[in-house]
Fold:
Amino acid sequence: MLQPVSTAPVHLSAYEEHANPTMLVQMRAMASPMQGLRVVHINATADGGGVAEILRSLVPLLSDLGLDACWYVLPPDGDFFGTVAEAMWKARPVIATPVGAAARRSVRERFLIPPGL
Structure:
């Protein structure tokens, strides 16, 4: 089963002293039409590595902007873990990676992902 990762709250307002105010207004405006949109991040690890460091801030910032953001890690599980982690790594440069129904079903069954996630 995928393991949820908890993150400490991070608010965009914490950057007001350091960031361009126009940029912060633009970020809030761009996020507005996406209020409630579910964004699921799945990563191989919650600690160490650049992705984990980014997600530790990104997930709570997205939540602060009104998106339903969450983060899960794959449980270490032998060969399957290596295969899925490698596939995720190879797919990272692709904006939208088409995944076939059989592959989605396999991952859902293996990690007991609830429908709609």
Remarks:
- Residues 3-111 form a domain with the Rossmann fold fold (CATH 3.40.50.2000).
- Strands lie at 3-4, 38-43, 68-73.
- Helices lie at 21-31, 50-64, 78-91, 101-111.
- The mean pLDDT is 82.
